[in-house]
Please model this.
Amino acid sequence: EDQVTQSPEALRLQEGESSSLNCSYTVSGLRGLFWYRQDPGKGPEFLFTLYSAGEEKEKERLKATLTKKESFLHITAPKPEDSATYLCAVQGSSNTGKLIFGQGTTLQVKP
Amino acid sequence: EAGVTQSPTHLIKTRGQQATLRCSPISGHTSVYWYQQALGLGLQFLLWYDEGEERNRGNFPPRFSGRQFPNYSSELNVNALELEDSALYLCASSSMAMSGYEQYFGPGTRLTVT
Model:
């Protein structure tokens, strides 16, 4: 069964303190791995798509990487406005349209 | 470019009633997806519509249904509401012709069943 596990569940950082969020997945044929940011009570905001192992994508202070079994979201010198829940999702090779989401990592960055 | 829009923002219903939620996809997107995000739970896939047809549904009872209109907007109907249907309902859209497999989400409709 396709599954996504994110760790840690919650992360508290001081402003400027870099860290990484982990997303482990099992899927029968990876069509794509997606990172989203979700603020409380709002819809997820698309960040990155990764398609194959070794791929990396960057956006401002965020960098996403992908291996055959997991993905990392690296946050460099975070700011308080980076505080949010970060969601990882995968889509398998069979075109079901379905994204399988992890439970998310809630990041709090203190000034 | 306008994003995915959903209405209403909030909806309060009584157990046993029916709820109708609406979604307009990003211009040019032909696929619409519905997800449920209950408190403390992750996003759960409900339905996928593409070109007016239901392509896939998640593990939800038949009282969750919907449709997609010729202009690609979509409607989610929940019949015989139960207390556990209280959740944030998210709509997403995508188009293979315009992007990869990524789905772009709307702001959601908060459904409260009392």
